[in-house]
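Hi U.,

Before I forget, here's the chain from the pilot set. I'm dumping it here mostly so it's searchable later in email.
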Amino acid sequence: IAPENTLVAFQIAANESVYGFESDVQISLDGIPFILHDKTLRRTTNIEEVYPDRVDDDASTFTFDELRKLNAGSWFLKEDPMGVVGSLTDKAKEIYNNQTIMSLEELIDLAHLTGKNVLIDIRSPVKENRYYYTVEKQVIDVISKTGIPLKQIWWFSKVYHSAYTTNFTQTGTSYLPVEDLVKLHISNFNARYDSLSEDEILQYLESNITTNVYLVNTYWLFSLYWCLGVQSVTTDECHVLNKIEKPLWHLTPGTYLMTWVSVDIISAIIIITILIVQWVRLLGTRFNPETISLHSQQTMTILTDQYHSNSRTMKEKLLFTADQLEEDILEATEGVSNDHIDSPTHHYMNTAADTIVISVPQ
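Structure:
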């Protein structure tokens, strides 16, 4: 409902009583961590107007002063990706239109003020950026300056570690057995919504390892993970999910099992009943003498009719052939002596045409 990764967006989220903020952190060319999801500034700023020759440049190739010159809210008012611009007041539109690229320090200060957790997802800069190998240290320095309680920082376990980061809430990102997570002091797990099974979630829950699932934007999916005991979800719809007072629908394991077994039993009874009815019908048809007699009579009648029909056809063909034969002989023997007529040289039958052909001498 607000331009993403801007101060006003996080302020609105805080007012919706969210559990924490998820942030994509990048490093500027002069070493200042800032908040941006994409690798370039094309989608969420007016870079085409300010830096038309650098539209597709990596965001980490800009200094923070250069980033601050970009408008990070006007695109939202023009494109209206969430379909809410029409309901905004003029004051809200003015605020949205004046948003800039946000620094990590501003986000941490807001989280500290509102008591929210911050999940930090660090993006690597281009290698030309001199902070390529020290970006994590730059982030830690910013966090330490804000004075925020360190447990409010969710730190991914795979990135840079120091004595300072051990006080963060260590967060895993790929599935490991509970024993391994405990050894790594991981107390929180951040996972894509379809990457963890129900059993894995329950194992973590039993071991006091909290789970955050992303990205959950629908009522039914939120309800599902609510019922599974997931502690939090990452969402773009906090203003919607926050209003849900109870899961959409939930069956206890016992109720689900009873329903499943009952449906199976009823289905089996219906199928067996249909088979028995069909078997009885076929059995009655097969051994009923009256049916057999009637069927035999019908068969004999059909065969008799076919026989008489074929007989009539053959007689007609023979009569036709005999008449035609006589005409052919008379025509062929005109002017020929009787001796020649009485002694034909040979004759043969053409079965393919169902006619008799006689060859006579000329």
